[in-house]
Each structure stands twice: as structure tokens, then as C-alpha cells.
Design goal:
- This protein is of the alpha/beta class.
- The protein is built from six helices and eleven strands.
- The protein has a seven-stranded mixed beta sheet with strand order 3-2-1-4-5-11-10, with helices on both faces. Strands 6-7-8-9 form a four-stranded antiparallel beta sheet, with no helix packed on it.
- α5 packs across α6.
- The longest helix has 15 residues.
- The mean pLDDT is 94.
Length: 246
């Protein structure tokens, strides 16, 4: 894995689409693209953590000009090689700080990507960077899970997320720092291989405060892309913050 690619180097990029196949289905992608296309209107869309183009490519296919920021050349090279990939502009860099050319009517982060920023300062910077890219009246959209701390009994720090004959996955939480990690154990030829990716979990109210610091206000929050109500039982949310039109 190339250091400049972070945790999404060649070994991850080579199997990313296959390992996340359930996130590429039309039932999953379609509602997200529908909402983002409506928010983009006649303007441009900016994706933070564009990856292999799961959302960017079908959004561009709707006629929305899309640009992406991503640290991983290994991931974005897959995007560029796909049909329609040449229509999506890419800026290589940290989406908490890197600037893309021009302005946008919608910026967005999907599939828990905000958690890839492992400090509160970096997450705050991400909101400020999104706001700096947005036109007046533009929106910043984030899809992220609600921290699963209710599943932690006293004294336990790990929550299983997948169990199979040759694969195990679990998340660990540090409630003092909001640090978490996703861990994967795979048995290959009788040997167990372990990989771990660090994250920082974040609460909806904390995101709202980050948005306020960046000059954005909460416009909508739903459980999913279809506009389902967000409740205390929701395990994820799609939130939309708006930049003042003044």
C-alpha cells in the first residue's frame, strides 16, 4: 500500500467494488443519486472521498457535472478507467483541506467517509472546506452511521459486524476519545490475516455544531436517502446543511 494513498491503497482498491458489492446495487445507489441530482439542480456537484465512483459516475450520468477529491490514486484510477470516468474530474488530496476548481451547488460525503477523518479538528476543517466550495444557497450532504454504543455492554469495547466461515469483522470503540476501528480477519490457506482501519465516530448534534462553525445550518435530516424519518432507533442518517444565500 502506497503511503500517499492512506488506508485505501492498491490492495484495497483492487477488491473494493467486489467487497462492497451490496452498496453498488441500484436500490442503494438510486435514491442517493436522486437526492443529490435534485440538490445540484443546474449546478455542479463535489464529492469528498470520491473513491471508485460509486455515486459520482451515475450522478454524472444524470447530466450533473461532478468533481471529486480523494487521497487515493489507486481508488481514483479505477474510477477513471470505468465507462464515463473521463467525465468526472479528480483532485488528489485530503478532502478536509484540498481545493477543487470552481464552485458547487452541492458537496457530499457518503458511506461513513466523514469518519475517515480521525480527529475532531479534521472533521471541523472538512465542513469549512465544504462551505468554502459552495455557492450561496448550496448544500453539504453527509451520510453516516449513528455510533453503535448502545450495543456495548459494560466492560466491552468490540461489536461484531460480520461473521462467516473464513471471515470475521468487528468494530472497536474508545468512548473517551471517540476513536474507533474496523477490523477484518480473513483465513487464507489456513492462515489468519488481520487488517484494521481507524475512524472517529461522530454524533449528529456534533456535526450540527461543526456545520454552524462553518456558516451552515441544518436543513434536513433523515434516516436514509428516501426521506425516512430520523428517530432514536435510527442506525444512520443523511443530513443536509445549507449555506446562507446572502
Amino acid at each position: 500500500m502506497a503511503a500517499e494513498d492512506g488506508y485505501f491503497g492498491e490492495s484495497v482498491a483492487a477488491r473494493y467494488d467486489e467487497s462492497s458489492a451490496d452498496m453498488f446495487t441500484p436500490e442503494t445507489v438510486g435514491p442517493a443519486v436522486d437526492l443529490l441530482a435534485r440538490l445540484a439542480g443546474d449546478g455542479r456537484a463535489l464529492e469528498f472521498g470520491v473513491g471508485t465512483g460509486r455515486i459520482a459516475l451515475p450522478l454524472a450520468g444524470r447530466g450533473v457535472p461532478v468533481h471529486g477529491i480523494d487521497m487515493s490514486r489507486a481508488m481514483t484510477s479505477r474510477l477513471s478507467a470505468k465507462p464515463g470516468g473521463d467525465a468526472v474530474g479528480v483532485t488528489i488530496g485530503d478532502f478536509a483541506a484540498a481545493r477543487a476548481p470552481g464552485t458547487f451547488t452541492v458537496a457530499y460525503l457518503v458511506f461513513n467517509t466523514i469518519n475517515n477523518l480521525t480527529t475532531q479538528d479534521a472533521q471541523v476543517d472538512c465542513f469549512r472546506n465544504a462551505a468554502a466550495h459552495l455557492e450561496p444557497g448550496g448544500c453539504f450532504v453527509v451520510e453516516v452511521g449513528v455510533p453503535e454504543l448502545r450495543r456495548l455492554p459494560p466492560g466491552q469495547t468490540a461489536v461484531p459486524s460480520g461473521i462467516g466461515p473464513t471471515e470475521w469483522a468487528f468494530d472497536t470503540y474508545d468512548t473517551a476519545t471517540q476513536a474507533m476501528s474496523s477490523n477484518y480477519v480473513t483465513v487464507v490457506d489456513g492462515r489468519a490475516e488481520h487488517s484494521s482501519i481507524p475512524f472517529r465516530y461522530v454524533w449528529p448534534a456534533e456535526l450540527d455544531l461543526m456545520a454552524r462553525l462553518a456558516g451552515l445550518r441544518l436543513r434536513d435530516r433523515w434516516e436514509g436517502w428516501g426521506g425516512e424519518p430520523f428517530t432514536h432507533e435510527s442506525r444512520r442518517h443523511v443530513s443536509v446543511w445549507e449555506k446562507s444565500a446572502d
